[in-house]
Hints:
two-stranded antiparallel ribbon, alpha+beta, zinc, zinc-finger, disordered C terminus, Herpes Virus-1
Amino acid sequence: MSSSVEQKKGPTRQRKCGFCKSNRDKECGQLLISENQKVAAHHKCMLFSSALVSSHSDNESLGGFSIEDVQKEIKRGTKLMCSLCHCPGATIGCDVKTCHRTYHYHCALHDKAQIREKPSQGIYMVYCRKHKKTAHNSEGTSFSHVSATFQFQEEI
């Protein structure tokens, strides 16, 4: 149920994140390792991954995510190449639905993507540098369009 946070010492190699394949704890958050030592992932790499949803079950979890779901997302990432470094594991996509840019968390930072997080609401979004300026404008328009649509439907 709980996850341990540790790093191996001595001549054995240091554990790396299953998503970004790095030890960039300062940029990507704490490296979390499952109790059975089979899964390791940075907290931010999991939070921003497109297909991961936090788990509230009593099953074994890693940073609030089901270990099974984390493993599935790491596997999905093997098919996704990063738009910046061109390496696999880029499970973080631009939140503009028509955009195909994908990143590792640290690559999104280096590419000057806009990172938006509201932990109290469970919102973790990334906008690539091409869409970060339009993200501000489209949110307001999108919400007003939705409310206008609901008002119109109620009048019918």
